[in-house]
Structures are given as structure tokens and as C-alpha cells.
Amino acid sequence: GYKKVLEENRKLYNQVQDLKGNIRVYCRIRPFLPGQANRLNPVEDVDERTIEISATSKNGKGKKSFTFNKVFGPSAKQEEVFADTQPLIRSVLDGYNVCIFAYGQTGSGKTHTMTGPKELTQESMGVNYRALNDLFLITEQRKDTISYDISVQMIEIYNEQVRDLLATDGGNKKLEIRNNTANGINVPNANLQTVKSPLDVINLMNLGHKNRAVGSTAMNDRSSRSHSCLTVHVQGRDLTSGAVLRGCMHLVDLAGSERLDKTEAVGDRLKEAQHINKSLSALGDVIASLAQKQTHVPYRNSKLTQLLQDSLGGQAKTLMFVHISPEYDALGETLSTLKFAERVSTVELGAARTNKDNTDVKELKEQIASLKAALARKE
Ligand code: ADP
Ligand code: MG
């Protein structure tokens, strides 16, 4: 009866979702910051899936539009951004591997999205904190049927070297990456810390941020030239059957994607820029080949893609937050960021968009809800 129809519908719903692929790209536009003088704004969020860039070129004024799975305008709150990320995060508890990236030029809001501003409040907390809080909440709800262990690692990749941000000894040892390990832990020598509460997470993240700042000065902000990755390992044990399931989530604040100014392109800066270039293009290549369902995926081209290999592709779910600065001065970088997004996206960008899939999903969702209600009345 109802149950069977409900099951059928759910199958269909999952199929429609699968068609859409496991790669999502969200675009977030940073607001103008207090005191910013240049208010000429070439970026406009048209609706919740489209942005428009107006550019003046030799050939006159033109507009180009880009479509994403979701667009967050300058006034979007951290809470809203998280709400659209939540289902992905929750799937870790069901044994999925998940990768969430923040991409964009320095100053475009990557750290704001993932962590939040320096002075954290409940309201300004970024995805990382909210994700862990959410995981604690659900494991508590499920505690009579499944017993979960949650542990975290925090590492940094700088100049193609992996460093432990939770090391208590400064973390200057270089770490090795292993893939396809039995326990799913691919940086076995990085500190792995069990967390039991949001406070544990805050303390660890503070330690990680402190360690990350080591070696940087005001003139030399290393955090914009390294990738940082918070990895959450989840292990759940079914209390009746004893079956164990593992999930893993990487929350990655990428190095700034800006191209180096020609005048700066010497010495250490040049070396850093080359490493960043190499790893971001390797990441782009991997996600693009997954989006296009190619058989060969080039994971081995950078430490970043090696680190994330087990969580990109297959059944894993990927979300890329692409960050845009609103200023006219940033236009060149904005366009190059959008070009990157275009490559990794399964959404056809710039083309006339169809809402058919969305309509199908929406209708099926409504049907599921009404069948559920009917079922509840029957029982
Ligand atoms: P990135 O990590 O990409 O270099 P940040 O996250 O540090 O950029 O953002 C640069 C500045 O802009 C910071 O002062 C940050 O607090 C502010 N900022 C970024 N995004 C937002 C936002 N959505 N709302 C308010 N302030 C933001
Ligand atoms: Mg940052």
C-alpha cells in the first residue's frame, strides 16, 4: 500500500538526485567591507542560482551570467549557508565520504565561510563549527541504536609538504599520505583527537589556528598561501548487529587562487605561487574529470588531491564554495574564479538553464511528504 508507493517514490527521488551528480558548486559573494571606498559593483546576484557580471571591455559593455547549484548574495547569513550544506554533512554519519572546499582569491571570504571572523559568536560561526555541532546533535539522537566515535585531524599543505596543525611539538615533521587504508585514516602520523563536545572542537581549532600562524608575519600571511584541512572521522557501531560503518569528511580552506603579480614573481613568493598553482589546477583536473565521468582521474598530481583521493569520486560527495569579491578591482580574479567553477561544475554555466530536475525533485518531495502523512494517519 502506502509503504510501497513511498519506497518507489524515494527510489525515483534518489535517481533524480544521482542524475545531478555528486558534485555541487555554490557561489558566495562577499559584501563590501566597512569603509571600502570603491563601491562600483560589477557582480550582481540575480536569483538564487544565477549571478551576472558586467564588464567593460574594448568591445563595449557586456554582461555575462553564470549558473550554480546555489548562489549566496552579500547579505546571506552563516546560518543560511549552513542550511544548504547540512544534508551533505549529515551523510557522513551514514558512511559517506564528503569533501567541502572553499575556493577563491585572498580576501574573498573563504575563511569566513569555513571558520568565521576572528571574534566568533554563535551567529558568526562558520561551516566547520556548525558541522561538528550538528554531528554531535544527531549522534545524541541516535544513541540508543548506534554508538558513534568522532575524531578530528587538522593539517596544512604548504609548498607540497604536509604538516600537522594539532601537533603539540610544533609540527615541523613532514607527514606521509597513505591511500585506501583499512581504517580510512590516510595521514596516520598526524595527531588524531577524539572529540565529545563542541567545546573540544573549539579548543582544537584554536590550537590549529595558533600553529598555522607560526612562521607568518604581518607582511607574510602564510595562511593565504597554504591549504588547511580539518578532517572529521566518524565511526558508528550498530548496537544490535554490531556492524561498523565509517565516514570521513574533509573541510578544506584552500590557498588563495590569485595569480601572482609579475613584480612579485621572485624567490619564495614565486615558489609558493607555483606550488599553489600546481595543486589548485590538480584539484580542478580531478573534479572536472569526475564531473565528466571520465575513467582516469589524475589524483597523483598533487599532495592535496592525494590527501583527498578516498573522498573524491565513487560514492563520495563534493561541495565547492566558490568565493567572489564584489569590487571592480577584483574583476580579473573574479572572472578567473568563475572560469574555474565552470570547469568543475556539472551545472551548465552561462547557458539557458532548465529547472526540470528541480521541479521533478520538488514534486517528488511533496509526494513523499504527503504519503508519509497518509501513512502516519493509517498507523
Ligand atoms: P579569505 O579567507 O578568502 O582570504 P576572509 O574570510 O579572511 O577571506 O575574508 C576577508 C575579510 O572579509 C575578513 O575581514 C572577513 O571577516 C570579511 N568577510 C568575508 N566574508 C564576509 C561575509 N560574508 N560577511 C561579512 N564579512 C565577510
Ligand atoms: Mg583565509
Helical stretch tally: 10
Count of distinct strands:
12
Largest sheet, in brief, is:
9 strands, mixed
Strand-residue proportion? 15-25%
* Helix coverage percent: 25-40%
Gyration radius over CA: 21 Å
Mean pLDDT: 86
The string of secondary-structure elements, in order, is: HEEEEEHHEHHEEEHEEHHEHH
- Uncertain segments: 349-355
- Terminus-to-terminus distance: 12 Å
Structural class: alpha/beta
Q: Which ligands does the model contain, each kind named once?
A: adenosine-5'-diphosphate, magnesium ion
State the shape.
globular
Describe it for me?
Residues 22-347 form the Kinesin motor domain. It comes from Sesamum indicum (Oriental sesame). With 379 residues, the protein is of the alpha/beta class. The chain is built from ten helices and twelve strands. The protein has helices spanning 2-19, 78-83, 86-90, 110-114, 127-141, 198-213, 267-291, 303-308, 331-344, 356-378, and strands at residues 23-29, 43-47, 50-57, 60-67, 70-72, 97-103, 146-158, 161-164, 193-194, 227-238, 244-253, 317-324. Strands 1, 5, 6, 7, 8, 9, 10, 11 and 12 form a nine-stranded mixed β-sheet that branches. It has a three-stranded antiparallel β-sheet with strand order 2-3-4, with helices on one face. The longest helix is centred in the last third of the chain and has 25 residues, at 267-291. The protein is globular. The model is unreliable at 349-355 (pLDDT under 50). Adenosine-5'-diphosphate is lined by residues 30-31, 33, 104, 106-112, 117, 224, 323.
